Amino acid sequence: MTTITLGFSPCPNDTFIFDALVNQKIDTGAFRFEYILEDVETLNQWAEQGKLEVTKLSYNAFLKLTDKYSLLDSGSALGRGVGPLLISKHPLPDTDKLETIINESRIAIPGINTTANLLFSLAFPNAKKKTEIVFSDIENKVLNNEFDLGLIIHESRFTYQEKGLHKWMDMGDWWERTTGTAIPLGGIVVRKDLPYEQLKQIERLIYESLMYSRQQYPNLSEFITSHAQEMSEDVMRHHIELYVNEYSESLGTTGRNAVKMLFQKAYENGMVEQPVEDFMI
User: Fold this and answer.
1) For the segment 135-148, what is each residue's pLDDT rounded down to a tens digit?
2) Domain limits, CATH 3.40.190.10, in the chain
3) How sure is the predictor about 127, in pLDDT bands with cuts at 50, 70 and 90?
4) Is the distance from CB of 183 to CB of 80 less than 8 angstroms?
5) Alpha-carbon gap, residue 281 to 186, rounded angstroms
6) Active-site positions?
7) What is the pLDDT of residues 4-17, one digit of tens each?
8) What is the pairing mode between strands 69-71 and 183-191?
9) Residues 188-216: what's their mean pLDDT?
10) What CATH number does the domain located at 85-179 have?
11) Which of 32, 129, 239, 269 would you call most buried, defined as having the most Cβ atoms within 10 angstroms of its Cβ?
């Protein structure tokens, strides 16, 4: 039996994908998966250390780690209309000075290494007053006037309006208008020191795990609901439907081209020292 260390977030899209794998609802053959659930920014930081053999990773973090990890074809979060939102306690001002206002604002971001921050930095390179905050705390910190703006991800997309917050910009819309491609948010990567045959088997098992959950849907397992206790099941389903799509099953040519575009834009804007081209297993 080969034990593989695996990290992913407690968000419904990740628990939906990995439920059958880690709870042995599918035949995992010679593999046993020792998993840990953590905030994606923590997983990004652990990946810098090479701590886990398989892990969810923001594409922004992956930019700098292609020497240690390779991207799997299954498990990614890409899509259209799935981007991070820039929100405020106040309605969007009617002004042609919006960029200046954003540049001068105190902004809560969900992590330096998140793709949300990469997209925001590409759009507003002169916005420097950024502070890293756990993504689930950003809404309340904006409401409490600790920050002027917040960059929200995950389930916060579905709850910010209920809390009286206002959308200023959808960074996904900005990306899609700028590039014409889907938005690469996060992927599943494997450490390069694993044998190639194992990498391909793990890739296949992640796909099978995702498809198992698809067969049960719209029923949600206890594994999914227990890790998203503050959400209603309707919000969980919205979350899954938004972030788990055809790109999660397989990146395909379109998905790979979207990732290449993100890496190219990062290089053109001086965020990485050299182009990143070889990133798949």
Assistant:
1) 889 999 999 999 99
2) 2-79+184-268, 85-179
3) very high
4) yes
5) 16
6) 154
7) 999 999 999 999 99
8) antiparallel
9) 97
10) 3.40.190.10
11) 239
Residue 97 amino acid letter: K
Q: HEC profile for the chain? A: CEEEEEEECCCHHHHHHHHHHHCCCCCCCCEEEEEEECCHHHHHHHHHHCCCCEEEEEHHHHCCCCCCEEECCCCCEEECCCCCEEEECCCCCCCCCHHHHHHHCCEEECCCCCHHHHHHHHHCCCCCCEEECCHHHHHHHHHCCCCCEEEECHHHHHCCCCCCCEEEEEHHHHHHHHHCCCEEEEEEEEECCCCHHHHHHHHHHHHHHHHHHHHHCCCCCHHHHHCCCCCCHHHHHHHHHHHCCHHHHCCHHHHHHHHHHHHHHHHHCCCCCCCCCCCEC
Per-residue pLDDT, averaged over 207-217, amounts to 98
CATH 3.40.190.10 fits 2-79+184-268, yes or no: yes
Predicted structure pTM score:
0.89
Does 195 have pLDDT greater than 80? Answer: yes
CA-to-CA dists, residue 137 to 134, 153, 159, 212, angstroms: 6, 11, 12, 32
Are 9 and 39 contacting, i.e. CB atoms less than 8 angstroms apart?
Answer: yes
The arithmetic mean of pLDDT across residues 204-218, rounded, is 98
The 10s digit of each residue's pLDDT in 166-183 is 999 999 999 999 999 999
* The two structure tokens encoding residue 68: 């240690």
84 token code pair: 């991070």
